[in-house]
Amino acid sequence: MSDALGIVHVFPSLMGTYGDGGNVAVLANRARRRGIAVTTTTIGPDDRIPRQGDLYVVGGGEDHGQIAAARRIREQGSLNHAADAGATVFAVCAGLQVLGVDFEVEGGAIEPGACILDLTTRRREPRAVGEVLADPLPRLGLPPLTGYENHGGGSLLGPGAEPLAQVRAGIGNGSGGAHGDGTEGVLAGRVLGTYLHGPVLARNPELADLLLTWATGHDLQPLDAPFVAELRAERAAYVASGKLSPPAA
Amino acid sequence: MSPAAKQQTGQPATRLTWRSRLAIAAGQLAAAASRALGRGRGYVVGGQIMVRISPNIIAELARGKRTALISATNGKSTTTRFVAEALRTLGPVAHNSTGANMAPGVATALASNRTAKSAALEVDEAHLPAVLQATKADAVVLMNLSRDQLDRGAEVTRLAKRWRAMLEAADWDPVVVANADDPLVAWACQPARNVRWVGAGQWWRDDAVLCPACGHTLERDQTTWHCPACGLTRPQPTWQAERHAIVPPDGSRVPVQLRLPGRANVSNATMAAAAVDLWGIPPQVAVAAFAQVEDVDGRYIEAGVDGQRVRLLLGKNPASWTELIDIAGQDGHRLVVAINARGADGRDPSWLWDVPFERLAGQQVWAAGERRFDLAVRLDTAGLNVIGVAEDPLEAATRGASGGIVDVVANYTAFQAARARVTG
User: Which of A90, B89, B284, B414 would give a disulfide with B340, using CB separation of 3.0 to 4.6 Å?
Assistant: First the structure.
């Protein structure tokens, strides 16, 4: 691949229900504003995922799109190859589940995943819906993660993966009972997954910059993020007010 | 109602049980109390009481009426208004014109116009099966399904499945007026015995990538779609929407000149014309009735606010915004966007990132509403020039008032609040 940073949006038409395109837009925007050339490649449902991307983004979605995406990723093998070779992979919600060992879909069937992440997902009741605030692993040097979750899966991490963060409000990974086990997201090398769906990188530009640092291989200049401080403050105040959305019935 | 009008409308179509008569009296009392207390227009609270006292009231009130139900993710209020305006050329119509589109709103609309022989009722997508079964409607108009309020867990394909089961279970033969261009709608309508297919168009396609029947990727070109795996194919429409015309089954072209902007409203008009044709209303007559509509419960309304001309537009999900992008802020209009995330809006504004705001890059815009900061980040990333942020969209619209028109595009509750103030 050329000098440009290659961002690959994996099957957004199969998995992109929750504004996931926003994460690609934020990554490309923050790279370009620093003078980094970017190519974004959108992988259509019948396209092959390239092996030589720098930063792969896998979004969330409904069951049938998730099953279709998992089958394609497994059969093609190129995302596993890229991850093994050190590419950065960012997976959100159903994307996190798809990269695991397996996941349960509505009706109880267990679908095999891509086995890029050491985690398994089973359905959980009630669905985890609402605002999330979580403290990331201290060594990442990130401020608290803020976002919104909406998922019916509980993911249990194996020894080959560690939680990205500990929840302060919300459910997160959601295995181990109604309130989850207190963990949120997953980290294994440069593969990072989170249940904070949709445009989580818009609310957490430092997380976007961490991914860009991994993908470009060098440190980045500081960059402002217009309106994000106000947005984070407003969401933090909402969480502090205790008016979190009740779990859906 | 004037005495003359009362005389004209005559007797109610059917007699009600004592329970339903009591329910209506109680509901109307509650609605009046709600209005007197300034809590709103009372259509929902009154209807809730009616339905609670007499659970069968919708079926009783609908008996003897010829009823059209209209449902979709987008365009149902406008299409219902079109249907109601056309049916009004025949006589009084029961119509839930304020968008109260669940069972209580339907009950209120039917109860407040007992003598009408026809009803045009907008129905929420998820509540349609129950309302269809209760009303045993003559016509059901199904237009489109796309992502909306995902925090409620109403996944789009699940809604299509519910519609399909509803039509399978219908033990009479309603005429289904269906958009052939939406694969989810077309699949849902397959079990219906009596379908009028309309080529009404579909511009937001991201929720219909996979075949609803088998999950394979659909193949599409400009006008048609089909599934190469199971063979599900776009039905051949007998009614067609064109950019400025309706083409009915006889192949004639009926020009459409609406006061409402945009191609989506021509689609809505085509669906409505195909529906009221069942009442024997010719498309030329229907189109003349549609042309009278200036606003739909505040949508598209233009009014003065503190000396500033303001036009209100409802933009509540990616598909509706995909239509508005070609309208909002064009023709030199200034632009204010307002987003809330209350229950009725969906509590998750992630969908803002599915709206192709990049097409408005360079445009000056104010970000407003309770979620104005989410919106400001989105608009800034898309390359718009966010020149101000204010919670109140009308304050944003009138700040630095100048000549010309300000388009205020708001989602549901932000729109309702702005409409209430603009229309007094």
Answer: B414
